[in-house]
């Protein structure tokens, strides 16, 4: 492998030839991140093969933070900033926050940055995601391996102030229409939401009332098309539901609210 450094012009041209829309910006990022000429050659080849830029770099920018991203872990999307914005508006110091299907831990990391005094528990059933999330959330967040609410301590039942969930919500038959960067390089369990895309949302909404405190909230990311059905799932579990949409982020969340009356 040649040790002669590749120029920015060459890197840009190769990225453009590979179909990268923002070739100039990506070239600058690869050049900045590569430690040696050999590193740059390897990173460029990986990107040319179709690997997501964030995986090639080893990080993704999300809500002003650099989130570490490992191969095989769901890459945080810009649209999830809407979920984060709504969560920040709801949390106060010492609140118990549970992030379900946490992936890289991006949501929890940002919430800890904005409100360091929350009691954060992040959960994922994918070991690689848990390892990545522990790096991003650091010692201030507890990252647990397991299925949805299963690994949470029973002492949290009825005491959680906020549950956030960016669970898979792509219908199985729609996976094939996703960009190759997602469907070929990210874990299918982080994408496939079942026949109608709502399998995980049903389970999350159905289990939330057992864990939420009176007045607690659930925020679920969903699609604009699925939002009415997601809201119905939340209502069916006994919560009030409202849909929040951001055209700027092309993002939609459903927010469920528990009654403030004691159990």
From TrEMBL:
InterPro entries: HemK-like, MeTrfrase_put, N5-glutamine_MTase, SAM-dependent_MTases_sf, Small_mtfrase_dom
A molecular-function term among this protein's GO annotations: peptide chain release factor N(5)-glutamine methyltransferase activity
Pfam families attached to this UniProt entry: MTS (PF05175)
EC number(s) reported in the record: 2.1.1.297
Domain Methyltransferase small residue range list: 70-170
CDD domains documented for this protein: AdoMet_MTases
GO biological process terms on file: methylation
Reactions performed catalytically: L-glutaminyl-[peptide chain release factor] + S-adenosyl-L-methionine = N(5)-methyl-L-glutaminyl-[peptide chain release factor] + S-adenosyl-L-homocysteine + H(+)
Keyword match Methyltransferase: yes
Domain of life: Bacteria
Keyword Methyltransferase among record annotations: yes
Keyword annotations of the record: Methyltransferase, S-adenosyl-L-methionine, Transferase
Protein name: peptide chain release factor N(5)-glutamine methyltransferase
């Amino acid at each position: 492998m040649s040790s002669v450094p590749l120029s920015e012009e060459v890197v840009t041209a190769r990225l453009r030839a590979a179909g990268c829309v923002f070739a100039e910006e990506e070239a600058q990022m690869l050049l900045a991140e590569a430690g040696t000429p050999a590193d740059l050659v390897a990173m460029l080849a990986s990107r040319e093969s179709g690997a997501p830029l964030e995986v090639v770099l080893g990080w993704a920018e999300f809500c002003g933070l650099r989130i570490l991203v490992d191969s095989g872990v769901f890459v945080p999307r810009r649209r999830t900033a809407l979920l984060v914005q709504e969560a920040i508006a709801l949390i106060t110091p010492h609140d118990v926050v549970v992030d379900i299907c946490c992936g890289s831990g991006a949501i929890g990391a940002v919430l800890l940055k904005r409100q360091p005094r929350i009691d954060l528990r992040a959960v994922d059933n994918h070991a690689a995601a848990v390892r990545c999330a522990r790096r991003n959330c650091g010692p201030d967040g507890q990252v647990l391996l397991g299925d949805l609410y299963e690994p949470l301590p029973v002492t949290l039942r009825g005491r959680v102030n906020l549950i956030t969930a960016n669970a898979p919500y792509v219908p199985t038959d729609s996976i094939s229409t996703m960009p190759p960067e997602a469907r070929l390089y990210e874990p299918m369990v982080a994408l496939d939401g079942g026949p109608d895309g709502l399998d995980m949302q049903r389970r999350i909404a159905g289990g939330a009332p057992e864990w939420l405190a009176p007045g607690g909230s659930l925020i679920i990311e969903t699609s604009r098309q699925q939002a009415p059905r997601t809201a119905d799932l939340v209502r069916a579990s006994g919560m009030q539901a409202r849909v929040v949409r951001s055209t700027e982020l092309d993002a939609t969340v459903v927010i469920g609210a528990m009654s403030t009356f004691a159990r």
